Structures are given as C-alpha cells and as structure tokens.
Amino acid sequence: MSALSQKHLLGLKYVTKQDIELIFQTADNFKDILQRPIKKVPSLRDITIANLFFEDSTRTRISFELAEKRLSADTINFTASGSSVKKGETLLDTVRNILAMKVDMIVMRHSSSGAANFLSENISANIVNAGDGTNEHPTQGLLDGYSVREKFGELKGLNYLIIGDIKHSRVAGSDIPLMAKMGAKVKVCGPPTLIPKHIEELGVTYEPNLKKALEWCDVANVLRIQLERMDIKFVPSLREYSLFYGVNKVLLNSINKDISIMHPGPINRGVELNSDVADSKQSLILQQVENGVAIRMAVLYLLAGRA
Ligand code: CP
Predict the structure, then answer these.
(1) Which domain holds residue 276?
(2) Fewer CB near the last or first residue (10 Å), C or N of the chain?
(3) Which atom of ligand 1 approaches the CA of 58 most closely?
(4) Are the CB atoms for 244 and 191 separated by under 8 Å?
(5) What pLDDT is attached to residue 2?
(6) What pLDDT score does 232 carry?
(7) What number does the ligand 1 atom closest to the CA of 109 have?
C-alpha cells in the first residue's frame, strides 16, 4: 500500500479507509521530521504549488505554505483581493493562466461549494481542496482524525461529538465521512435549525441536549456559528446560543467524565467555547494546528506521487 486511490483531494467522502491510513502513516513520518532541528526534506524539490485563497484563512493557508516549504517545493500565493478576479476574470481563466506558468499542483479555498470538483473536471493538475463553501474541508477532517488517533490510539469505537452549526460546516462535512470510515460513532448537537435534514442518512445521531451529548462522548469538536454563510438568522441571538450550546468549564465539571475538546478555529471565545476550556488541559486545539502541517505534508507528498 503506497499510493492514494485519488489524483485529487476533493473531499473525504471520496477517499477510502486505506487512503486515510496511508495519509496518517505518512504524517507520522513527517511529524518525526518536524521534531528535528532541520525540519526540511527534499521530497518535492522539483514541484511548484500554487495556493489559491479566494476566501479568508489563517491556519489553513499558513499550514499549507509551511508544509510546502518543509517539503522544499516552490510556492506561489494568490489571494482574490488585489487580483484580476476583481476585474471580472473567471475562476477557470485565473487557474489556467497560473498553470501556464508551469505550476504542478493547486491548493484552493473558495466560498462556492463544489469549486474544487469543478476545477478537477477542467484542468489536469492535482487539486487539494482547502475548504469549499459549506461542502468539505478534507485536510481539516484529516488533521482532526489524526489528532484524535494520537490522543486515543485509534478511532474505532470512539464516541465523537460535533457541536454547533453543522448545517453550514465544511468541517462537519469532512469529519463525518472520516469518522464513519474509521469506525467511530458520530453524534451531532445543536439547535435543530442548524442541523441538516436527513443527517441520520450519514449514520449520525442527533442529541439536542448539550449535557446529555457531552456525557455520551469521548471527544467533542466545537464549531463556530458561521454567520458569513447565513443569509437569514438561524438562532435568535448569539447570547441565547451561548446559553444553550456554549461549552464552558462549569458544564464540563458537571459531567462525570474527562472528555477532550477540539475546535477547528477561528474560535469566537465566549460564544461557542469559553477560554476556561479552550486554554485548558482538556483542549486539543493547538495539537490540531500542529498536526495540520504533518497532515498537509503527507497529502501533498502522496498526491505528487500520483501526478
Ligand atoms: N480551520 C480553518 O480552516 O481555519 P482558517 O479559516 O483560519 O484557515
């Protein structure tokens, strides 16, 4: 087992359990390298990667860029602001022009769900989806799964809870297929208006009561309310949301279990998650960010082998 089944990483709904295991094992090797004084390897020395960010990002953009530099790839960074997108250039024209400069791989974040799939049907370079609208964020799903595996040894049989705005979350869109493929049980918790219809068809159960949901889980991934993706209001106010679905130390102390807390970032402190949990020993948040670099190195390295 040494190659991915896919030429692109568009979403975790398309990858196999074997692909996920291969990415995790490859990330283990890169994580070891990242602990050394010299963190750079020549694996992608002849590869040029374009990071196309049509939507804002801190963690994902920096993590991909760092992963590429650690692999010795040449990189170019594009953001929509300040580009000819502002003059009306289409996505496909933008990417075709960048590829004409002999770029080998595209990492793309876009506000439109399906943008990465659309590109994959129209260009020949490898594409890594760095988050598309409300659809998927596959490297986030992989780093989440990897961080849980690191903490618990394996994902099989674990109770994995996702709290909050599931409806607009591309993180949930990638975490759910990954956890299901790796044998974890997934439950979601949040206001009914923020839970997708027919979620049970994905093998996921729904618990509206946060305390009961927390008592069930081994690890909880707390999501942000994604106001930028809402054209109407789905909750009466953030204050009310926080009262019913905010995770804080008092609530965690009231359950008879020491669970781990994750968050993909950015955190709205005091809304979905309080600082007394985000910055506590129960939090895996900065381990998630650290692991993101090794996971993205693994994905880029394995996809480059499939060019
Ligand atoms: N987790 C995540 O995608 O964060 P950024 O939006 O900062 O990249």
Answers:
(1) 138-285
(2) N
(3) 7
(4) yes
(5) 73
(6) 64
(7) 8
